[in-house]
Amino acid sequence: MTEPFNLTDEQISCFREKGFLQVDFSLDEKLLDTIVEKVNPLYDQQQLQQRVNGTRAQDAWKQVDEVRLLATDARIFAALEQLLGRKPLPFQTLNFPMGTAQQAHSDTIHFNSIPKGYMVGVWVALEDTDDTNGPLLYYPGSHKLDEHSMKSFGFGPRRDNYPKYEQQIQHIIEEQGLVVEYGLMKKGMAFIWHANLLHGGAPQKDLTRSRHSQVTHYYFEGCKYYTPLYSRFLRRQYRLPFWIPDTPDYELPEDKPRFLRWYQRFLMNFKRTH
Length: 274
What we know:
- By secondary structure, the protein is α+β, with helices and mostly antiparallel strands.
- The chain has one domain (9-249): q2cbj1_9rhob like domain (Jelly Rolls).
- 28% of the residues lie in helices and 19% in strands.
- The protein has a six-stranded antiparallel sheet.
- The radius of gyration is 18 Å and the shape is globular.
- 32% of the residues are buried.
């Protein structure tokens, strides 16, 4: 049985002031190793051989139960509830075999909530991460800046405008004089970040190395959820997430008829957010 997990006042204050928190949850190394082994066949093997930055496996929890176990770890749940004051609801996993080299961005362009601020990401190092195998990069305190959408930059809500969004974020970083930091973390450490924290992936200097990691995105109960990237003013693209189950006895929504899937997800969201 997992022991209760409590953050210190200093840790909670760090998250509020800096927008991120590094935590040692004493995760089982065998579990982490099993995730690496079992997820590996799910990656695009051509991308893997060519060492393509950003290679990933989305929602591997559906095929690999160890991914689900990490995403629903009770210690992580306890920490997130202490930070946000609401029950966390995991809705997506991303597994990476190497660094992403992703430009700085805020997750509020991808995932947002009403009321705002109730989304976090949790990045877990499945092996040691240093300055040569593509660590996270982030800008402490940037979560306090205004949230930015395509509309706030004068762009339409389309995926092909995303590079323009990234350019505007770079301008903000320069104008604000934000100072970058890097997530140099030991295997098993977790990095929790606020939805509006500007973050990305540092270039991977040594492409012969791996940088296995798992990201889980969490919403919180009592909210409405939507995707700003594809939303217009007064016409938000709302989400009806399928929450990652905390028990292995579940049925995936794609195994059911489309109408039944929508109706059951609606009922599930209504029950868990009211």
